[in-house]
Write a structure and sequence with these properties.
By secondary structure, the protein is α+β, with helices and mostly antiparallel strands. It folds into six domains: 59 residues, Helix Hairpins, CATH 1.10.287.610; 227 residues, D-amino Acid Aminotransferase, Chain A, domain 1 (2-Layer Sandwich), CATH 3.30.470; 106 residues, Nucleic acid-binding proteins (OB fold (Dihydrolipoamide Acetyltransferase, E2P)); 73 residues, DNA polymerase, domain 1 (Orthogonal Bundle), CATH 1.10.150; 89 residues, DNA polymerase, domain 1, CATH 1.10.150.20; 71 residues, Rossmann fold (3-Layer(aba) Sandwich), CATH 3.40.50. The chain has a five-stranded mixed β-sheet with strand order 2-13-10-3-9. Strands 16-15-14-17-18 form a five-stranded antiparallel β-sheet, with helices on one face. A hairpin with a 2-residue loop joins β15 and β16. α1 packs antiparallel against α2, α11 crosses α12 and α15 crosses α16. The longest helix is centred in the first third of the chain and has 23 residues. The N and C termini lie far apart (82 Å). 36% of the residues are buried.
Length: 668
Amino acid sequence: MNTDEKILRMQQLVRELNEASEAYYNGLGERMTDYEWDARFDELRLLEQETGTTLPDSPTQKVSEDSIAGQKEEHEFAALSLAKTKKTTDLVKWAEQKPIWISWKLDGLTLVVTYDNGKLTKVVTRGNGHIGTNITHLASAISGIPATIPAQGHTVIRGEAVISYDDFDRFLMESGEDYANPRNLASGSLTLKDVEEVRQRHIQWIPFTLVYTEEDINSWGGRMDWLDHQGFNTVERQLVNTPDIGSVEECITAFTKEVTTKQNPFPVDGLVICYDDTVYAQTGSITGHHATRAGLAFKWQDEAAETTLKEIEWSCAASTISPVAIFEPVELEGTTVKRASLCNISECERLGIGATGTRISVIKANKIIPKVIKVEAAVGSFCIPEECPVCHAPAVVKVSEVSGTKTLHCTNGECPAKQLRKFARFVSKEGMNIDGISEQTLSKFINLGWVSEYADIYELRSHIRELAQMEGFGEKSASNIMRSIDKSRDVEAHRLLYALNIPLCGLDVCKRLLSAYPLADLVFEATKAGADLFSPQAEPQEVFAHVNGIGPEKSASFVRWFRDEHNLTRYRHLMEKISVTQADNSPKGNRCEGLTFVITGDVHHYKNRNELKAYIESQGGKVASAVSGSTSYLINNDVTSSSGKNKKAKELNIPIISEEKFIENYQI
């Protein structure tokens, strides 16, 4: 390329990278993978070096930012980004033989949290690294940000707001909303104004560095330990005292194993290394938007393989019909890979995907997700189906008004494939607890026409021979699934209600409703048209609003679900296949009735805090997560501790009792 062509390419790269960053940081659909973003970023940086030109909006010269609406606030300490590498040798060279820490690079949204004299004073998003958005009003809805800490003086902490994979899947099942990944949901959630709505997203804030404290601590590890003692749940980390190729690779391998075996519950997009000597770390210079000694980000070197496309399979799940590349098997990261999602029509067009025989390159992004990254040689062009592969209703292409992304949708609102996440919740451990049936397996059953409503799962035995012959199953696997299905026929009432996917009705809501009514009465109350013809029928929001912890919104959702004839018919079909018990769902006594407890610290007489919570609820009490004016007692075996909850309880004149005292007064 000549200079003019290079400048044009740079303009294109700047536009694509900035658009992708805006989507990434603001809860919109993803424009490109990390792999693709890094490749374009590196290409842009190389072109800038070759031409000696840097465009005004170049992402190499600025920190990507969120556009969360609200009061803007300048950071006391700039939150600059880290330089990145995929080479272990670069990490060793950067370490300079000094002790370093390696920790997760969590994939969420960075928040800067400030305390003064032990009290939370502000929570600010990272923004552009210099100016962020003040979201202090949402702090109570984000787990991990206590209102008070033991330390006095001025404290500034930087951490990542993340959502675990489990909470992400649960939210999608319960809400019916569609987000690309946990990070997308986390960033989108912080744009909300309703604190309770944010709380339902189960965002957790995990500190990854102590920016400032009046304590004299010059060790990064010591500073993180100090945060632990303040009651924070800090990022997982490991010390490498003598960083050389062997020790660094050994540490990275341990972290990598947690990713590939899915031991880590949170999304990550690499690792971070930093000096233990915080004084030395501050001596670096500022280059672009990086502080050279503040830390270095490590991203896994994705292993790529070239293969041949066999077909594009269109799979209907949730709200879209998504293209999946089926290709000749290749070995990646120690496993055999033969299929990868192509995401949507726009992604197929961007890649230039073709038909059978097209040569493609495939990776496992972040060691986990198979991804087509490049078309080496296209053969023909891909075809967009005109009907849904499951129900055969017409399919239409929709274009997002926000991102411009083209996706294919089934026009049948009752298409079974659109209910995939609902079926996944139905069989989940919290629901009917049918072991051995994953979301992927359910998708196969739905696409084969075996399952279109919950009751159909209990008729799968008629397909056992076909199932045993399917790839990835076999006779033993098929028999185990049937055995698990049969076992689930006896189910507790709260699990059944949860499994039905009634909007706004999680496990806690189901238990609360069942504590007030037996299942049969609960359904009758929801469906009856009014026994007294001379009195007006109760509005849906009024039927169960009186039940503790329910309120009008949840009441209306529950009642409307059962008053829908389609739902009621399918509920009756299901009830013909199962047997329901309610013995353990309603309070067994009233020893804790009218009382609200908060539990903190270790317990000694109960197996864990959940068991103590279950007992309190069985006795008509409530258990809250935070101390407030409505708290009756704080249970803490360390009654004299200076923990944040103890301090709050003392401020509000709320009694602090030990577990022994609780048992003495409230144990049967």
